[in-house]
Design goal:
There is one protein chain. By secondary structure, this protein is mainly α. Helices cover 78% and strands 0% of the residues. Helix 1 (2-23) packs across helix 10, helix 5 packs antiparallel against helix 6 (147-164) and helix 10 (222-254) runs antiparallel to helix 12. The longest helix has 33 residues, at 222-254. The two termini are 26 Å apart. 52% of the residues are buried. Mean pLDDT is 80; it is low at 264-268.
Length: 424
């Protein structure tokens, strides 16, 4: 459920910009900075969390990240100035960076091979529900009650999830390789009891204790370098498309589905977010809820690589047709398919990445490759407003189509199929 809180803040940020622009007399560059610092905070967050996760435990990273997210979400709702609001969003980004990949790593290590995909799918389903939650709350409260109340309501689930994350067990795989075999056995026994199965351990649990956990030197060895670079590039391109989708959709919908942003509305209209735009944004967000389970099932049926290749083709096709203004129906359909396919592709990458690296460096390796996702977010924040809003969205959609082509090329360079294998 941690994914719910993370995505709710990513989706909320662009929805608040219209109201904040009026309240604090912001210019376009100020809107760019808020999203820039959000994604900029993600990058050190995932590396810091990766080091903590490998050296101190997955649960420590989860708890720290969730408490940080709760604290600065509440503080952002009470912000009285643009600069304090921006600082809060930097730390919100830091917390999201800490949580995103370590949640997936923890789920992967707690799940058997035949259930691993479905565990990570639940993470992405809650991510989609969190984004939808922000859209619905904004539709109900943003224009009538203001952005502060809207943010406070979005923050309510953060409190409950911050309490629940304290009850999460540490990864038994991490406990084992860090020499805490007795604790690992206790977690495994607890999991067996909860699932009404017998734990088949003869004698004591025997594993090789890994002393050099979270080593940068091992991550960049020849053995892992190619896979690291390919996954980093894929996450970067997926992040560029996904976060651009989050931020550009409200502007494109507000512009009546054309590609030159119309900024000539009257002052009262500028201070209100269009209800129809919020409805359509929520509708497009449902693409994740529908498409993610479909491709998660295909991932288990056909394997990681075939599913990634199919998704890359769908993503490229929808991104290509977005470059052209082909009418309202095609426009909405392409936004829908692009959003659903890029999030589904991210899901498979999140399943695939932890399966490519050994436990002793899994946290750091996944933290580094997921850093590409957030670097893509930084670049998207630098493109959507200056390029899309101030000039033409056709330039932006052409850039995203080129990124989708890059995704297709990288996916076909991946050679290792990991479906049904134990984590190394």
């Amino acid at each position: 459920m941690s994914a719910f809180t993370q995505s709710s803040m990513v989706a909320l940020a662009p929805l608040l910009m219209t109201t904040l622009q009026c309240q604090w007399d912001l210019q376009t560059i100020h809107e760019v900075v808020v999203l820039f610092v959000l994604f900029f905070g993600n990058c050190p967050g995932d590396v810091i969390s990766g080091i903590i996760a490998d050296r101190k435990g997955r649960k420590v990273s989860l708890v720290l990240g969730q408490l940080l997210l709760l604290t600065f979400t509440v503080l952002s709702a009470a912000a009285s100035s643009y600069w304090f609001f921006g600082m809060c969003y930097f730390f919100i980004g830091l917390a999201i960076g800490m949580l995103t990949f370590v949640t997936v790593v923890h789920l992967s290590e707690m799940s058997p091979p035949n259930f691993r995909s479905y565990s990570v799918t639940l993470f992405f389903m809650f991510w989609a529900l969190g984004a939808l939650f922000s859209c619905v709350v904004s539709y109900l409260l943003l224009n009538s009650s203001g952005w502060e109340i809207t943010t406070f309501v979005v923050a309510v689930p953060h409190l409950f999830i911050s309490i629940l994350v304290l009850l999460v067990d540490e990864s038994p795989k991490y406990l084992a390789v860090s020499g805490q075999t007795a604790a690992a056995e206790q977690v495994l026994l607890k999991m067996a009891t909860q699932n009404n199965v017998e734990l088949e351990i003869e004698g004591r649990l025997v594993v090789e204790v890994e002393r050099k956990r979270g080593s940068f030197r091992e991550v960049v060895t020849v053995e892992h370098r190619k896979q690291l670079l390919l996954l980093f590039t894929l996450f970067f391109l997926a992040g560029l498309i996904a976060y651009s989708s989050y931020t550009m959709i409200p502007y494109m919908l507000a512009n009546h589905h054309c590609y030159t942003y119309n900024n000539s509305t009257s002052a009262p209209e500028k201070c209100r977010f269009s209800d129809s735009v919020l409805k359509e944004t929520a509708m497009i967000t449902t693409a994740e809820i529908i498409m993610i389970p479909i491709f998660a099932f295909g991932n288990e049926l056909f394997g990681r690589l075939k599913t990634l290749r199919l998704l890359a083709v769908v993503l490229l096709t929808s991104s290509f047709f977005l470059v052209f203004c082909l009418g309202n129906t095609v426009f909405i359909a392409c936004l829908y398919l692009q959003r659903g396919s890029v999030q589904s592709l991210s899901l498979i990458l999140f399943i695939y990445a932890p399966e490519c690296f050994p436990t002793r460096i899994r946290g750091l390796s996944c933290g580094l490759v997921v850093g590409g996702l957030f670097l893509g977010g930084i670049l998207s924040s630098s493109l959507v407003y200056p390029v899309g809003v101030l000039h033409s969205f056709s330039y932006l959609t052409a850039t995203l189509a080129a990124a989708a082509l890059g995704v297709l090329g990288c996916v076909f360079c991946l050679k290792t199929e990991t479906r049904g294998t134990d984590l190394p």
